[in-house]
Write a structure and sequence with these properties.
The chain is an alpha/beta fold and 291 residues long. The protein has 13 helices and eleven strands.
Length: 291
């Protein structure tokens, strides 16, 4: 068994990014934090914290910190357990950027008992964080539950391929043809983002090779599109006002892409996260398309 105070020190260092921050959060001295981390590293026989600005966890350190946070979550659901701290409980969740920018935050804000550590990743890859045991829940594009998790359908986020009128006149005067797609600059969130590629292939009727700006910002996608930097898939809730105002146009009219989303939560922590799950489901189903 590991010393719980050492595990809490590790979790606090990784969460705050410094030994001083961890000391302030736990109400002890910085030297006490250093001693606890040193003793824990000696016990497990591995480096757990990468010292730097900020401090970060090694793979082993992140796993232990996540385990500690999950234990604290489970303690909340055990009514007969010994009294635990009233401090907010850290909870790591993998989320896609577009959900974070549109409907998710109001659901999280309904609960004061958590300190959220949000890992932003593509919806097609967020479930990998659950498989590795590094998060307690995830918003995923896959319906099938990860082993040891429950999966709840949230609805579908509707995307529209948009660009500025000037961009379309310059780069796609003859419409979204294969030649236009392969010559005109598109935008992508990162290398995991396939929305633009998949949508273009569906419209063109064949695979296309896109020239892409990498722009890891949901709001940045909207602004870049209005400025004519490139075309991209934008959530309808964010681009509708621009379409109505004429500052954006659909690259191909009446050709939206709907991406189904699911809330996957580890059964180990499902009970203490039940109120949060209810909020997430309620807000998602109010904001997303229900079929």
């Amino acid at each position: 068994m590991h010393d719980y105070s050492q595990l809490e020190a590790l979790s606090a260092v990784i969460r705050t990014g410094s030994f001083d921050g961890a000391a302030a959060q736990l109400g002890v001295t910085q030297s006490a934090i250093s001693q606890r981390i040193k003793q824990l590293e000696e016990r497990v026989g591995a480096v757990l914290v990468k010292r730097g600005q900020p401090c970060t966890g090694t793979d082993a350190g992140n796993r232990l910190a996540t385990h500690t946070d999950q234990v604290r979550l489970m303690e909340k659901s055990v009514e007969f357990a010994l009294p635990v701290s009233d401090d907010p409980t850290p909870v790591r969740i993998a989320v896609n950027a577009d959900s974070l920018a549109t409907w998710l935050l109001p659901a999280l804000a309904e609960h004061d008992g958590f300190l959220y550590d949000l890992i932003v990743d593509d919806q097609d890859h967020s479930a990998d964080w659950l498989r590795s045991g590094e998060v307690a829940a995830a918003i995923s594009g896959h319906a099938g539950p990860v082993q040891g998790c429950d999966s709840i359908a949230l609805g579908a986020m509707r995307y529209i391929a948009t660009a500025s009128p000037d961009y379309i006149n310059r780069h796609m005067p003859n419409g979204p043809t294969v030649e236009a797609f392969e010559a005109a600059p598109a935008m992508t969130f990162n290398d995991k983002d396939r929305l633009q590629m998949d949508w273009a292939a569906g419209v063109a009727g064949q695979s296309v090779t896109l020239q892409k700006h990498r722009l890891a910002s949901t709001q940045g996608f909207i602004e870049a599109a209005t400025l004519g930097l490139g075309w991209g898939m934008n959530p309808e809730t964010l681009c509708r006002s621009h379409l109505d105002a004429g500052t954006l146009e659909e690259v191909s009219p009446n050709a939206p892409m709907d991406v189904a989303l699911y809330w996957q939560v580890s059964r180990l922590t499902a009970e203490p996260l039940k109120p949060l799950t209810k909020s997430v489901v309620r807000h998602a189903r109010a904001a997303l398309i229900q079929t």
